[in-house]
Automatic annotation (TrEMBL):
Organism: Odocoileus virginianus (White-tailed deer)
Keywords in alphabetical order: Membrane, Peroxisome, Transmembrane, Transmembrane helix
Biological process, per Gene Ontology: peroxisome fission
GO cellular component term of the entry, any: peroxisomal membrane
Subcellular localization: Peroxisome membrane
Protein name: Peroxisomal membrane protein 11C isoform X2
Organism lineage: Eukaryota, Metazoa, Chordata, Craniata, Vertebrata
Record InterPro entries: PEX11, PEX11C_met
Encoding gene (name): PEX11G
């Protein structure tokens, strides 16, 4: 994660300012999540003598924040890509333009899948927060498992699709 964040930097290659800001904040939340989770785990394993509950709450909060930012980014991207598709149909009549249209449609599909995955994970993140925060602790075990499985399957599907596209590109 650190390598990705370092490569992304301040998102200079990102054209959209909103996407850049949300991505940078998401990267920051991700970077803060990992050490908090490690401290919580170390406290549970009696390696560190601190209250693990606080660290679990903090790490889950960073996880939830990262997911919320991911949801906002995906929604924004879907809106922007749909705007691009609404351009006059003449813009997509040539063979090259139809290929660009298919590319935009594929990007929209990918963003929707990312959005669904993030929402499933966000529902689980809220479940693991302390009681009293939204629906924390109230989701039945089968729902927590279903949401986690759904998120994982969506991520695996996206990885397979990305691999297919990479191998199909000359």
């Amino acid at each position: 994660m650190f390598v990705y964040t370092k490569q992304y930097g301040l998102g200079a290659e990102e054209e959209d300012v909103f996407v850049r800001c949300v991505s940078i904040l998401g990267n920051l939340a991700d970077q803060l999540y990992y050490p908090c989770e490690h401290v919580a785990w170390a406290a549970d394993a009696k390696i560190l003598h601190v209250d693990s509950a606080r660290w679990w709450t903090l790490s889950t909060s960073f996880w939830g924040l990262s997911l919320l930012l991911g949801v906002a980014r995906s929604l924004w991207m879907v809106l922007k890509l749909r705007q691009r598709l609404r351009k006059p149909p003449e813009a997509f009549t040539s063979r090259l333009a139809r290929g660009k249209r298919r590319t935009v449609e594929t990007q929209i599909c990918s963003e929707v899948l990312t959005l669904l995955s993030n929402l499933a994970d966000l529902a689980n993140a809220v479940h693991w927060l302390p009681p009293g925060v939204l629906w924390a602790g109230r989701s039945p075990q089968w729902l927590v498992g279903l949401l986690g499985t759904l998120s994982s399957l969506l991520s695996v599907y996206q990885a397979v699709q990305a691999g297919r596209q990479a191998s199909a590109t000359p």
